[in-house]
């Protein structure tokens, strides 16, 4: 089984590489990434035995190079994207180029170089602002440059539904430790601030809901998909619907004494909830977990912490 991971050096990609490399049936993993985040951690630390992993430095808009790396590939995980918080509305041109047209280039290449399976990581942000937990049947309403670009990318994936096994996986907000960390994600940012400053900032009332899923669960599900007969389609993947206040309460247990500061307290904020019992769970299992335990495990990954006086101590 030969696998291509676009964006393989990123937050999720790094963990997915390690997970897939443990499978004896996976003979080759190609990481295709432009390293635009300046994150080289996938190349360091944990050893991957053998020579099954290779790296190709390439742009998702480089159609010629895409066609080259797709030769003899069986499965594609399409993770390459310009990512940000779900409701960000800045830098629309970059989102459109990378997320929308970058996906289009990949699909053009796949139409010439068919594979057995394509798994595309989209975002639950395509649902926009929800009043009830969204299901796959909920109408999409993308309302930011980021979510619009992801929705348009999905439209290109649809072209393959009758040609190959193509899965669109709409992820909730991912959190948790990875070697290639993203600290713009909500829980990760709050963890960093709680650990190193002893205070967190809450924008709005704190009652706004988000859908979340731990990165280990994401890679677990993606790995399971290799061994399941999941029909082409759109699938949600989320685990918990939490308000910012609920996250704050969990953090106060992990970090007793952490302070919470509110700004724009009259701002209700966006709500984005996803039904946990999604269609994908007909085919794969989603492990149970406890948020506090996950946050405590995350805490153990920090190299040091700051005392009340601002002095650094090694854990």
UniProtKB/TrEMBL annotation:
Domain spans labelled NAD-dependent epimerase/dehydratase: 3-237
CDD domains, per database record: SDR_e
InterPro entries with a match to the protein in the record: Epimerase_deHydtase, NAD(P)-bd_dom_sf
Family classification: Belongs to the NAD(P)-dependent epimerase/dehydratase family.
The protein, known as: NAD-dependent epimerase/dehydratase family protein
Source species of the chain: Limnovirga soli
């Amino acid at each position: 089984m030969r696998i291509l991971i676009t964006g393989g050096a990123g937050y999720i990609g790094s963990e997915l590489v390690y997970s897939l490399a443990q499978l004896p049936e996976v003979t080759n993993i190609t990481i295709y990434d432009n390293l635009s985040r300046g994150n080289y951690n996938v190349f360091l630390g944990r050893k991957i035995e053998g020579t099954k992993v290779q790296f190709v430095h390439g742009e998702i808009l480089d159609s010629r190079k895409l066609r080259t790396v797709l030769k003899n590939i069986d499965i594609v995980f399409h993770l390459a994207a310009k990512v940000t918080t779900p409701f960000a509305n800045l830098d629309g041109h970059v989102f459109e180029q990378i997320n929308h047209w970058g996906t289009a280039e990949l699909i053009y290449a796949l139409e010439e170089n068919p594979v057995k399976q394509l798994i595309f990581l989209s975002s639950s942000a395509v649902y926009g602002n929800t009043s009830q937990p969204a299901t796959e049947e909920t109408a999409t309403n993308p309302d930011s440059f980021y979510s619009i670009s992801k929705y348009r990318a999905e439209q290109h994936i649809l072209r393959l539904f009758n040609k190959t096994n193509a899965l669109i996986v709409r992820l909730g907000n991912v959190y948790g430790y990875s070697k290639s960390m993203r600290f713009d994600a909500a829980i990760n940012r709050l963890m960093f601030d709680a650990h190193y400053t002893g205070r967190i900032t809450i924008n709005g009332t704190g009652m706004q809901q988000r859908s979340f899923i731990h990165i280990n669960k994401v890679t677990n599900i993606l790995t399971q998909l290799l061994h399941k007969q999941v029909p082409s389609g759109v699938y949600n993947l989320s685990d918990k619907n939490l308000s910012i206040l609920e996250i704050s309460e969990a953090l106060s247990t992990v970090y007793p004494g952490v302070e919470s500061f509110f700004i724009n307290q009259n701002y209700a904020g966006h709500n984005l909830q996803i039904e946990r019992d999604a269609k994908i769970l007909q085919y794969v299992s989603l492990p149970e977990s406890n948020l506090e335990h996950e946050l405590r495990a995350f805490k153990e990954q920090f190299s040091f912490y700051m005392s009340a006086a601002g002095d650094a101590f090694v854990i």
